[in-house]
Amino acid sequence: GKGNVGRKRLLERTRKGQYLRYVASAVFGLIGSQKGNIVFVTLRGEKGRYVAVPACEHVFIWDLRKGEKILILQGLKHEVTFLCPSPDGLHLAVGYEDGSIRIFSLLSGEGNVTFNGHKAAITSLKYDQLGGRLASGSKDTDIIVWDVINESGLYRLKGHKDAVTQALFLRDKNLLVTSGKDTMVKWWDLDTQHCFKTMVGHRTEVWGLVLVSEEKRLITGASDSELRAWDIAYLQEMEEPEEPEPKKVKGSSPGIQDTREAEDGTLEMDEAPEDRILTCRKAGSIMREGRDRVVNLAVDRTGKILACHGTDSVLEVFRILSKEEIQKKIDKKMKKAKKKAKLNSCKEEEEDLEVNVEMTLQDEIQRVTNIKTSAKIKSFDLIHTPQGELKAVFLLQNNLVELYSLNPSMSTPQTVRTNRITIGGHRSDVRTLSFSSDNIAVLSAAADSIKIWNRSTLQCIRTMTCEYALCSFFVPGDRQVVIGTKTGKLQLYDLASGNLLETIDAHDGALWSLSLSPDQRGFVTGGADKSVKFWDFELVKDENSTQKRLSVKQTRTLQLDEEVLCVSYSPNQKLLAVSLLDCTVKIFYVDTLKFFLSLYGHKLPVICMDISYDGALIATGSADRNVKIWGLDFGDCHKSLFAHDDSVMYLKFVPKSHLFFTAGKDHKIKQWDADKFEHIQTLEGHHQEIWCLAVSPSGDYIVSSSHDKSLRLWERTREPLILEEEREMQREAEYEESVAKEDQP
């Protein structure tokens, strides 16, 4: 048929030294990444229904009501570290790990505006009230104010000595207030672009900063369990001090506009310098229940609700009373106090009844409740609906989004979890991947669940609970799957019903590896109990129904002297390769279990291996970062390749060829030619170590899983790849990278 002709052509092509390029096709299995923050976005005029979350280098927009992904804002290659929606709700500003910022339109999903000005990851983004300017803070300690409409940078503010954690525009005045990990809070006058005030009242990093009570109060969160409140008074409202010339900042030569801080922070301690523009006095502290640092501190758009969380799974919610509510409280207190005074001094004259009523900070900022989530909180966002309901959405540590709602004005508010997005990903890292024989279904299994994905739509079609999975395969016929677990069990699942058919105690330690026999009648398992076991499929009578169901029975055991890490059948089923903890690979005859060859040469244990389709070659990948290619006839090492910068975690031959893929802890997937010993191409995309990959039976698709919680699909294109051109492009890219790292632009 057509497929065979295509395959023959492909084989001819690879013989001629021409290869086909694999390209990234999709990211899935990920609900939200840890590095950035979750935000509510307005889409189609609806508030509180859609959220944007960082997803490695992309941004996913989820519909909370349906639990569906409705839009992907495509990134390039750096991870997303910060999100901020524009005030009009039409755009989303996205900050990346490399310091670039892109502004996406939420209508079209396109990012037409890019700002490059920072050298390190973006740590904070904030629009001003109208959305015309954007302030960005970064790990490189700079703050840059950008003109969004003209798509240009306005100015850079230098002064912080460590990463900037927050930057806020004031609503009515042309001022900016910023906080940093250098324990400072700085006030900047944007007319003259310099720092006119540095607050040094914090002993630790300032992690969060919000303005409340009509910008008359500043609340800061640091590394201890108190939120500090500061009262702000604006001097212009009292009297106009004569302004010094803005150009001459202390410590700068005349005529040079220096945008560094005006005073060195030490002045505040001994004699306060003359206050300009505003004064800031500490008003007191609100105690949090958490004992650790504040991770996020935020107010909702209306400024009525304040919330913060630490490194745990509790969000503490406070209500900020308005002027009218405070006045009511004062009146109430006055009444009470007067009554009391009257009772105490009935005989005395009425004049002495001037009663002083002090409002404490605790009266003005009241604790509402705590929201307990199902896992550690990484970030959150609030929305206060006109009906008075508070919605809080959380991005959790275990790849999960949850939405809670409560009514803060009730005396005892009830917190309800209304939605969660869970189907689209595992709670923990995926440790094993398999393709079905028709190339359509993909199995991924992690510490708690197995998911079956449709490769073409990337939808999760089945979720089954399991023990900690380490290896897996589809039973021939694709109706059942077999999983090997960390506790040494074999678990057999039926896909149509999603039921666990059977659990068998196969090994005493972890069951590290499974290999399906080429005749498809059974398989072999290798475990930490130093044994290799052979199993056959069989049909047994089902107690519950008249039909027979699939089961497995053990036929033989091969006992060894070392822990078994990996097993693999040769395609003609004559040989079995077993990788052991003593860094060797032993090869046995399958029929007699007699020893045939020992492949030694790796300095650390062989973690992964595969035998080519014709049984001529075996490739082994080890924790010593090398891949060795051996002949299976005499066990001679053809070539040793330095493959990755860290352990080689997975190795698989492309079906019907001598090309193979390796995956490493260095975040890369590489393709090699086992005949010419050439490195063909590198697939970059993952941001953390790669645990495993699967190559489809047709060789057209690869799926990989990583510690960054994402699964990635790669597909083979028809585009030929010429090695010389690849090398040339690689050299150019390396040169450009080295030039960009130097000081001069």
UniProtKB/TrEMBL annotation:
GO biological processes: maturation of SSU-rRNA
Comp. bias regions, Basic and acidic residues: 728-745
SMART domains in alphabetical order: WD40
GO cellular component term of the entry, any: Pwp2p-containing subcomplex of 90S preribosome
Pfam family, one: Beta-prop_WDR3_1st
Localisation: Nucleus, Nucleolus
Molecular-function GO term, any one: snoRNA binding
WD repeat residue numbers: 115-156, 157-198, 199-240, 423-463, 504-538, 599-640, 641-682, 683-715
Function of the molecule: Part of the small subunit (SSU) processome, first precursor of the small eukaryotic ribosomal subunit. During the assembly of the SSU processome in the nucleolus, many ribosome biogenesis factors, an RNA chaperone and ribosomal proteins associate with the nascent pre-rRNA and work in concert to generate RNA folding, modifications, rearrangements and cleavage as well as targeted degradation of pre-ribosomal RNA by the RNA exosome.
Oligomeric and partner information: Part of the small subunit (SSU) processome, composed of more than 70 proteins and the RNA chaperone small nucleolar RNA (snoRNA) U3.
UniProt name for this protein: WD repeat-containing protein 3
Organism from which the protein derives: Balaenoptera physalus (Fin whale)
Source lineage: Eukaryota, Metazoa, Chordata, Craniata, Vertebrata
